[in-house]
Amino acid sequence: MELVTFPATAAEAVALVRREVAALHAELPRNGLVVWTAGNVSARVPGHDLLVIKPSGVSYDELTPENMVVCDLEGTLVEGEHAPSSDTAAHAYVYAHLPEVNGVVHTHSTYATAWAARGEAIPCVLTMMGDEFGGEIPIGPFALIGDDSIGQGLVATLQQHRSRAVLMQNHGPFTVGASAKAAVKTAVLCEEVARTVHLSRQLGEPVPIPQADIDRLYDRYQNAYGQHTKDRP
Known about the structure:
This protein is an alpha+beta fold.
């Protein structure tokens, strides 16, 4: 496809986001969240109705800033030599309807996807879950790839929960964040708690955390933990 000429500020913004998104994709195989070419990271281009996402079917070790693709918020290719990820319509729908979201991640990580296959939310039985997710990790509806149906299910589910992760039924986890880095972090922690809660259930019934304590955990982690400069989910 012939390259589109952006205004200087847009071109600079796109170049920065291409580099960020290419680098963050390396975190998915590094953390055991993907196999082969599955999964994707996207980021909103600040100040512009654009997103940058992984090209479809390209190996992780072949990803570079240059082969990331740029799409508008309807999922239409704007710039790039490759077809965008098959999940682009879902990412675009999230950005178009949740302006606070600047990063979206999708994986088929093993334990989180196993919960999705059961159509079962991950209950909040770990303080880490209270901290990061503010409650259970919910199940989103079943939807087929190909249009924005997955995005619609994601937005509807996210609007009803504090969790920035959703397990789309029979599909796998999607996570969102105030930045693409924050969404990747949430994807890593989603798989970690999915695994831990699964193992706990092999030993017996996990002990739930009272809602008042979940609220306190979430408030402390979101508003007081760390150095106050880190990305928040």
